[in-house]
Amino acid sequence: MPKVSKRGQNILSSPIRKFLPLMLKAEIEGVKVFKLNVGDPDIAIPPQLLPAIKKYKNKSLGYAPSPGISEHVAAWLKYYGDFGVKLKPENLIPTVGGAEAILLAILATTDPGDEIIVFEPLYASYKGFAAMASVKLVPITLKIENNFALPPAKDIIKKISRKTKAIVLINPDNPTGAVRTRAEINRLVKIARGHNLFIITDETYREIVFFGQPGSVLQVPAAKNCTILVDSVSKRFSCPGARIGVIVSYNQVLMSAVLKFAMVRLSAPTLEQIGLIPILKNARAYTKKITREYKKRRDLVFTALTKIPGVKCQKPNGAFYIIAGLPVKNSEDFVKFLLTKFRYQNQTLMLTPAQDFYVTPGLGKNEVRLAYVLNTQSLKQAMLILKKALEAYKNR
Amino acid sequence: MPKVSKRGQNILSSPIRKFLPLMLKAEIEGVKVFKLNVGDPDIAIPPQLLPAIKKYKNKSLGYAPSPGISEHVAAWLKYYGDFGVKLKPENLIPTVGGAEAILLAILATTDPGDEIIVFEPLYASYKGFAAMASVKLVPITLKIENNFALPPAKDIIKKISRKTKAIVLINPDNPTGAVRTRAEINRLVKIARGHNLFIITDETYREIVFFGQPGSVLQVPAAKNCTILVDSVSKRFSCPGARIGVIVSYNQVLMSAVLKFAMVRLSAPTLEQIGLIPILKNARAYTKKITREYKKRRDLVFTALTKIPGVKCQKPNGAFYIIAGLPVKNSEDFVKFLLTKFRYQNQTLMLTPAQDFYVTPGLGKNEVRLAYVLNTQSLKQAMLILKKALEAYKNR
């Protein structure tokens, strides 16, 4: 029998999705599971989205142009313009979610064996895409005690080798919720320019910040030629099922390579590109509202966590995640316990063990990521369940 | 300034799309362009598709499960069952069009530097995906004189090296329209089994065959463990903009790697998975009808081409493409001539130069691919324009 490739053997299961079978089993048994594991927003989609799709009356449903439907691209330009980022159509290509934008950014900047510097813990899909591209991630570990701040320049420069091609910056960050300061961004831009590296900046959660104004690395003039922005409608418009994202750069040599990749995979979905046009043109009407809601939830979850004995966490400033250190040895084992053994009022909880967000083996073993994508009432109950479950786990 | 990767530099522009700017210019000048270049069907989509999408009433638009929405997967199982291919849900994962299925199949079977045997001319995206995966395509050249039949086993075996991991079979074939005989398929299966290779079988055009019954390599019992099927709704349901395909295999080790890749990229579009459920369950009601229409067009185009002096072609048995050898030295130059200089009744034609469908440099220079995706009246006019244009080109 022929053998699966090394990259196929090496790739890890998604930390977010690998406990799915246990969760489904609990649900079949009639247990209510509060799902804080996936960043799948519960908030209603913008009211214009489905009507805009339902207006589609063509007899055919053809490929969108590989560089995007022009009205959709124009809507993105308006969107970025509202944040002070002036783009031309050739700076931007719609993708199949932020996921495809990440893959294309990696492929356009690296060859097999090359290295990308990342800050860990990091959104686990980067590990998967690096495996698919046969590229090595070189991690710099951020600490919960330090609220996941970036280290000084010298600690980053130390990790650069002849094979380093890019640095990834997720801002606001998944999974930590950290929001980068202008000083942190300037530090990275200076390093990238000094060492001829690309910055892959993932701004999927741009508007979900709890103080200050949403921004972009692309606002930094010095970042222009070395920055690739990957972005997505999934979180800010609560519609990850639409599978629309975008890859953006002022670097035209890079964008011409990305366009060729985009032509190979043909196009992003036609109906969703159309449906998102009115929403992109007036994004802040929606994103301001949901950010207020996420802030309420952040406050509730953070306050509740700090009251649970043995739990360590820091107040996140953006996105809708929080990393919590738990008083357990192995959070994978604790999550299994939640799904298979623990019930409180016939309810339980699903969290994501944090260790797979780390590149370095052995780190994050006592940590979990919580996505606060449920309403405040559910979150209140979920926090109670977490408290009870930690007690029961300790006494098991 | 940081540099684009080698794979980003090496990837070619899509042969189908690279003349787009010239075509748009002609259209802006008011010229009617008959587009026989892209496999973008003009036929109306199945009437159930949009209504099924428009029924969607959820307040959220969440990720579909990475292994697909269960009702959508069930609809595919019914679809394959109708062709005598019995599958379980774990044998199949919905993808973002056939394109993503091809990429995942390549990634699951090869590592950088590995080789895949292909028959040229071949669907050009394979060249692009191989570049993205840093894999080498090893071509076996098929001849127009021989109606693009597969060569004897010994000529295929000759191309196998220690690095060969898979053989690609597109059936019915894009761009030649060839439909493989059972003998050809058995030959490949025997070779694959004998040399521990995977067969990546691309059956996007399955139902569009002009004699005999549509089938699948998966019907061959000996092919079970070595075959990966990539498939798509784009052509058979005339909806390439839906971006839904599927990757299928009985090999569970392989499918577990594919599932991990699928989790990294999260999911295929939610609305389109839902919309296609009723259509997949009763596919033949639609595909029989469109196949009759494509047969009419095939007959018209083939007959017209054989009457143009100097044109060489063979009758294709499936898909909706035909490769024609033209009495020109360089078909790229001829296509440019069509778009920029030639007008007949203020109309012209867009074709795809065939040379980029070849892996071997220098082959196919006088060939073009025609996609008969227009109605018979338009095709009749297009064939007249082609005849006039070849005369004008000769006398230019």
From TrEMBL, chains A, B:
GO terms for biological process: amino acid metabolic process. It holds the Pfam family Aminotran_1_2. Its cofactor is pyridoxal 5'-phosphate. InterPro entries: Aminotransferase_I/II_large, AspAT/PAT-like, PyrdxlP-dep_Trfase, PyrdxlP-dep_Trfase_major, PyrdxlP-dep_Trfase_small. Residues 32-377 form the Aminotransferase class I/classII large domain. One of its GO terms (molecular function) is pyridoxal phosphate binding. Keywords: Aminotransferase, Pyridoxal phosphate, Transferase. Belongs to the class-I pyridoxal-phosphate-dependent aminotransferase family. This is Aminotransferase class I/classII large domain-containing protein. It comes from Candidatus Buchananbacteria bacterium RIFCSPHIGHO2_01_FULL_44_11.
